[in-house]
Amino acid sequence: MSTSSSNIDDDIDAAMLGCPYSQYNIGMYYHTGSQIPRCYTRALHFFVLAASQGNADAMHMIGICYKYGEGVEVDNKMALQWFLFSSSMGNNLANYEIGFMYYHGYGVEKCYRTAEYHLNVGIQNGDLQGLSLYSNLKN
User: Were both Cys, which of 4, 12, 102, 132 would link to 115 (CB 3.0–4.6 Å)?
Assistant: First the structure.
């Protein structure tokens, strides 16, 4: 058996035993279609299992699923809530998503001050994907 197959097998076993890290990993396998067929509904199921145990990365991915309608209907308000949960648990990538949503008014009234705050927090913690939006706000 190859190393990658062993890793997914190990993650499946651990996920079934309730390991949130492995539940998140299985969700990512399903979300990306890596090593198993892509299935957003199954991905979301495993993200919810992991998030219910405090996994901030899984909370972020639930937000992504709601933002893009992957396994659920698009719901920007729910996406924003999950990004806020994720950010409060220390997921830095969620700050970009929050800033993006406030900048564009997705699921919330536009608020450049709030967008700037969250984009800045993300940038200060090494996530540079919000740099161009942040620059737009500063100009």
Answer: 102
Distance in angstroms between the alpha carbons of the first and the last residue of the chain:
55
**In the predicted structure, residue 119 carries a pLDDT above the cut 90:** yes
Rounded to the nearest angstrom, the gap between the alpha carbon of residue 70 and the centroid of all alpha carbons in its chain is 12
Q: Which amino acid is at 64?
A: I
Burial of residue 12, with CB atoms counted within 10 A of its CB: 0-12 exposed, 13-18 middle, 19 or more buried: middle
pLDDT at residue 26, rounded to an integer: 97
Q: pTM of the full predicted structure?
A: 0.90
Task: Give the least confident one: 74-88, 94-108, 121-135.
Answer: 121-135
Tell me how far apart the alpha carbons of residues 121 and 119 are, in angstroms, rounded to a whole number: 5
- For residues 101 and 76, what is the distance between their CA atoms, to the nearest angstrom? 8
Residues 6 and 60 in one domain: yes
Instruction: Verify that 47 and 107 share a domain, yes or no.
Output: no
